């Protein structure tokens, strides 16, 4: 990504010859490691989507979580990545009809309002703006832009997020490792590290996690795990141990199996909490609804398949849950969401005239 | 504390008239918030200790945990606080017979060796040097310098540490919040915060912890807890919520009671692991041994007394466990330990001559 000095971000709008004034949509997915922006043309109808989707440009930048990098840096990153995507697609801000910005760290209406305020300054007043938690983009990537159903994300962190067709929303988990996201990759790996320490100091049963983890980290004793753990506060570095836990569980280690089974229950519980609060399953518990499943923890294609176990758990309670593994990335989900919402409002306005 | 430029730390040794060349001992307790150094005269016999103990000087400085502030800063702080204590007591390094440096962050023989190496450069070669984890100073503060028995510390963090009379040692827990120190103040408070989030998003039962914690932190909704939690990485800030959990448990809240009961079991389990591994209780499990109990979590003088519950738990298994609440601070324990070890080696050398 190019770096511009203050104010130069949008200079390309005067420099390049802008292609036919084709209306476009921007979708952004801002996670804790990177931010992706997708530019798509406004498609005439939402009845059937073209396959493949007509993506005009894709731009990528660093972290845009304001909790992690601060307000100013987050804003700069988001502005830059949108400018890059528009520039790459030979378009500019006057062609934009709607923007959906789905970023991690949006946990409260005040977060949403703060981002909307400065996003408003950036675009003409007729542009439709939507600010959401990044989980919402993941949901939309499975439902092709429709805000209906539940998404379960389990990567380094975990969250369940859902919407009813009439716009009510609910979430569960997603509060980070200190606040009990035990089904996350970080949660699974931290439990495994804890089991190693407990086996080592006599508080817990023997487990093959000890030799497997020490070997993976190239450490010679469990005491050295303490120094390793606190040397770097990155949650992703700890979560990277999940495959070791899965291997030990597959090899029959009881401690590793217990950790994974508890993670499955935790993940299923998050989905259940959202489904119950929104009544997605209907009064008889049998209504069908999309359940989008995303993230490294749910994608392990090994014998011990966490995603499948979670789905089995949920299907028993809610036979109408339709598991969806998205085929497009979350930023495309965000763009489809912006387009969907834009079309809805556009048609409503046309109807009123 | 005065701040000296490099190399000036020991200047006072030439500047002040040094009192009678009375042999002295230094004891240091280096925790994660502060470092205390005590200077005591060498007492002639270890049979009966004078009451009060003849403390010549006490100096205090900041954090000296090398994991937290780095090697150089830790060394500077330790050197400075020793110089201050000697200067205050009108003494100097030539009068020192033994030093016990008990600092947090000593988890491995390599940590110990690194600190010993630079401590060696600071003192004449005949000075006896001992480097220990800070838990050892807490044990010695209860046993008046003898390395025998078990200490349980539960403040922001928790650790159990024990020694047999013939010098074997063992520890349990003390691996920090990521690695499962669930009985610590941080562990108790993090479980309570988690319970609030789970009650709020429908994953857990209702609990009065929610209103109690939100009121204490001056927040209006549970969603705001996420921002509060990650705004500051200090473990002590989270652990400060323990009294709120105790109050809710006393008022009959089931969730708070469960958290405290589990913490009691975790703390007792740490002690049990150390006692078992060292055989402190003898073969019939009834031998007597000192059990020193230290730290804010164990000192709550409320109706829900965590320390008493832990002791009840341990007494059932080990009727010979003698609970001790130290009357002197850990730095005095470190000084007594240095003095004790020095006397032992001194008598052995005298015997050989």
UniProtKB/TrEMBL annotation, chains A, B:
It comes from the Eukaryota. InterPro entries: ATPase_BadF (IPR002731), ATPase_NBD (IPR043129), Euk-type_GlcNAc_Kinase (IPR052519). Residues 26-338 form the ATPase BadF/BadG/BcrA/BcrD type domain. GO terms for molecular function: N-acetylglucosamine kinase activity. It holds the Pfam family BcrAD_BadFG. It is an enzyme of class 2 (transferase). Its EC number is 2.7.1.59. Belongs to the eukaryotic-type N-acetylglucosamine kinase family. This is N-acetyl-D-glucosamine kinase.
């Amino acid at each position: 990504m190019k770096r511009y000095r203050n104010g130069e971000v949008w200079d390309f709008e005067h420099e390049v010859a802008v292609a036919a004034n084709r209306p476009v949509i921007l979708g952004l997915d801002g996670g804790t490691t990177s931010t992706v922006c997708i530019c798509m043309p406004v498609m005439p109808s939402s009845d059937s989507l073209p396959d493949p989707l007509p993506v005009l440009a894709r731009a990528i930048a660093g972290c845009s979580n304001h909790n992690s990098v601060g307000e100013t840096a987050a804003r700069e990153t988001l502005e830059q990545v949108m400018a890059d995507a528009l520039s790459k697609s030979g378009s500019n801000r006057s062609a934009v009809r709607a923007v959906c910005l789905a970023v991690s760290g949006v946990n409260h209406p005040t977060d949403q309002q703060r981002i909307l305020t400065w996003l408003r300054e950036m675009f003409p007043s007729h542009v439709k703006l939507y600010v959401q938690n990044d989980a919402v983009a993941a949901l939309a990537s499975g439902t092709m832009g429709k805000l209906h159903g539940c998404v379960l994300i389990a990567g380094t962190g975990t969250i369940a997020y859902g919407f009813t067709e009439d716009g009510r929303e609910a979430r569960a988990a997603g509060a980070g490792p200190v606040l009990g996201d035990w089904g996350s990759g970080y949660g699974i790996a931290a439990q495994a590290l804890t089991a190693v320490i407990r086996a080592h100091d006599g508080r817990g049963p023997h487990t093959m996690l000890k030799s497997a983890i020490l070997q993976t980290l190239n450490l010679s004793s469990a005491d050295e795990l303490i120094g390793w753990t606190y040397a770097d506060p990155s949650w992703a570095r700890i979560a990277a141990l999940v495959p070791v836990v899965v291997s030990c569980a597959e090899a029959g280690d009881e401690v590793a199996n217990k950790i994974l089974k508890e993670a499955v229950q935790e993940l299923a519980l998050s989905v259940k909490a959202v489904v119950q609060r929104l009544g997605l399953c209907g009064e008889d518990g049998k209504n069908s609804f999309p359940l989008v499943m995303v993230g490294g923890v749910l994608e392990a294609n090994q014998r011990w398949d966490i995603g499948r176990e979670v789905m089995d758990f949920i299907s028993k309670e809610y036979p109408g849950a339709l598991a969806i593994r998205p085929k497009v990335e979350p930023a495309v989900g965000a763009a489809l969401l912006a387009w969907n919402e834009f079309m809805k409002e556009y048609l409503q306005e046309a109807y009123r005239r």
